[in-house]
Write the structure tokens for this entry.
Amino acid sequence: MISIGLKKIRPILQFNLRLYQSLSKSTLNEAIEKLKPLKGGHISLVKDEASGIATITLEHAEKKNALSGQMMVEFADIVEDLKLWESGKGLILRGSGDTFCSGGDLNTVKNINNPCDGLLMSTLMHSTLNQLYCLPLVTVTLVHGKAIGGGSELTTATDFRVFSNTGETSFVQGKMGVVTGWGGGTRLVHLLGPRLALYLMTSCKKVSSEEALNIGLSDSTVPVDSRYEDTLNWLHQLIKHDSEVINAMKNIVIGARNLTLEESFLNERTLFSPLWGGPANMRALKKNVKHK
């Protein structure tokens, strides 16, 4: 008899490590040592145990929430924390003030403006955002104000995007003589397909909340004044199930995204079997909720 415990489905599954195995521990540690002294701003994490929803807030409003080196390291630590959150179901990523994120902080950029340090910074942010992308939570970015450059890349690292009426995103890396450095180009292709992704990157086009909804980059638009509350309500509709079920659903999606077809089917069976006859399944059977 095959025995698979419920604990097996909570962590990010083993196959996700394939995304990071090229990122050596020593390189990540070197990146952290280089970036951590570059101060400015803060990233906060609030976990609501009752709802199972966590909120990450970029707090550097005076610099349009641009990420300093210190903030990049904090981001990595926060994602590590969320990987261990067993009761978690959902996550909202947002910026403070009137801007989501304007990319890298200029003071930080000036201190690492050479190819070697750029690679270190890119390696850390790739690792952080890839792991955010693979959290076993339903994740959504609240885009209020501008998401520019690196900020636009952050928006691609969650499952969904909700724009406020004034939300706007633009991949302006080409204007700066570079390309996407935080994995946003690859994720944009996965989101929108190669043709539209290439158009957005080469044109550096400003995409409004209305346009984002039309092209499938945004999943909903909310009023400015109630943007956070409305995003919370939007997310609540997707996480009504037990955390074990939500985690398993997300890991099915991650598997389908990264595994071969046969491996993905095996992963799906492995996630299904401990839930069949489990506590949530038995409660649902007793209540006969299937057709309600």
User: Anything to note?
Assistant: Residues 153 and 184 are 4 Å apart (CA to CA). Confidence is low (pLDDT under 50) at residues 1-21. The two ends are 34 Å apart (CA to CA).
